[in-house]
Amino acid sequence: MGLLDSFEKGLERAVNSAFAKTFRSGVQPVEIASALRSELDAKAAVVSRDRILAPNTFEVRLALADEERMRALGATLDDELHRLVDAHAASQGFSFAGPVTIDIRSDEQLSTGTVRVASRTAAGGLVTWRGVLEVNGKPHPLAKGRTVIGRGADADITISDSGASRRHAEVLWDGERAMVRDMGSTNGTKLDGHKITEARLAPDGVITIGRTALAFKVVAQAAPPRPPLPPDDATRVFDIGGRP
């Protein structure tokens, strides 16, 4: 049984009091886990109809005495917190832009029994986006500019389909938005089942060329690392309420 398993039922209790209080007893591991779960739920953002992006970089601040007690638990606490964050994300259908990191540090301004959590998405707090075309389950990342699709060897994405022209269609990607354009093909190009000459390409849109379907995805990429999260107004404070 893991360090936090016996506390699972306690993870649902309220932890969002807006004011700091002082308690005789300190923070427990389950209370940190509960605060992390609350932070995941609060910051999760819908990217597309089948992708909900949640923060993956967390900074947990505790009073000095609480931080010392948590540090004494060593890698066991870190492993359990990661396990519970992963489990909660899986149960809610959340996905991450990169590896989950949880940094626990002391804050002299905090009272015993207070958990302060800040989070951001990806390793550096910013997310860059990459357009991808999936063909038969294989992803083809899009470079900025134009990507030509067709049966010819000179196409950027070559598909083996007798219904495709040598240079059949192109996708234009500027790093945030995409457009699909037919290049005067013999059999035409469809987007989500409708024949098009040129159209905006939304996330999860499906381009059909002959009998080949190409699904357009927008994937989050981690940006370069940044310094630790500052204690600003965006930081969420969880005042657990100790046991007497």
Automatic annotation (TrEMBL):
Domain of life: Bacteria
PROSITE patterns in UniProt: FHA_DOMAIN (PS50006)
Keywords, sorted A to Z: Phosphoprotein
Keyword Nuclease found: no
FHA domain location: 147-196
Classification via SUPFAM superfamilies: SMAD/FHA domain
Annotated PANTHER family: NUCLEAR INHIBITOR OF PROTEIN PHOSPHATASE-1
Protein name: FHA domain-containing protein
